[in-house]
Amino acid sequence: MAMLADLVEVVIGVDTHKHTHTAAVVAAATGQTMVTMTVAASPDGYQRLLELAGQHSQQRLWAIEGTGGYGAGLTRFLAAHAEQVVELDRPKRATRRHGAKSDPLDATRAAREALGRDQLAQPRATGPRAALSVRLAARRSAVQAAGDAQRQLHALVIAAPEVLRERLRIRSTHQLVAATVLCAWSHAGRCRSDAAFAMLGGAAPIPASSGQTVRVRLNRSGDRQLNQALYTVVLTRLRTDPTTRAYADRRRAQGKTNREIKRCLIRYVARQLYRLLETQPALDPT
């Protein structure tokens, strides 16, 4: 696998904040900081950063912290100008605690961290994916605000006719699961394989073997909303799909517990959804 230092001449790390962005231009070959600049988080500031990058090399890559938060505007601006952008998470706490802390230093750390990684994450796509994300965020906020009202109406819903309750339950659940999966997947190529998609959703088992004991443990990391969506799919299939129920009976006869069976099914569902999404045309979020 080619190293990033062999593909670009400079990496521009950006530490993003609400009102300002700080960039550091770092030489890919040596890791030396060539220049730093702090600009306003505005289109004029983005243009100044682009002009700064143009003074050094055309073979460059941007490493931005928080492309879905404070760095979203800069990420969209750079994408519109055909710039290469990768996403980085926040620096590790241990690194921060035992070293100096400033915006230029954080920008430099972002660039050097990108140089040291084998796999670089792409920013999530905008457009239909962003529209679905806004809808999910609005729904979560509405659900939280309407908690008291839901508890008051719970008794009335329980007393409704079974046909009406089933229609409402299936319709809402299916739509939310689909929207959650689409937002996490984002776009074709974001996850390099079904294993990476399963790791994103916390569905990939973590090896925990020791000595002669060979086992795996539950993966509690990843996108927990995606994990919940996969779990909902598995519960629905166990309740309604004869093939899934036959699989569960067969694994149960082999000594697997119900929890272990569900974890296997969640991994299978993640693989199936990934292959389906990667081979289907772009979906309309409406």
**Distance between the amino and carboxyl termini:** 40 Å
Amount of beta strand: 5-15%
Unreliable stretches, pLDDT < 50, 5 or more residues? none
User: In one word, what is the shape?
Assistant: globular
Q: State the secondary-structure class.
A: alpha/beta
Number of strands: 7
Helicity range of the residues?
Answer: 40-55%
Record the strand order, biggest sheet.
3-2-1-4-5
Radius of gyration from the alpha-carbon trace, in angstroms: 23 Å
Give the number of helices: 12
How would you sum up the major sheet? 5 strands, mixed
Q: What is the N-to-C succession of helices and strands?
A: HEEEHEHEHHHHHHEEHHH
Number of domains: 2
- What is the residue-mean pLDDT, rounded to a whole number? 80
Helix-strand layout with pairing:
Layout: H1 4-7, E1 10-16, E2 20-27, E3 33-40, H2 43-54, E4 60-65, H3 72-80, E5 85-88, H4 93-97, H5 103-116, H6 128-145, H7 147-158, H8 162-185, H9 194-200, E6 206-207, E7 216-217, H10 224-240, H11 242-253, H12 258-279
Parallel strand pairs: 1-4, 4-5
Antiparallel strand pairs: 1-2, 2-3, 6-7
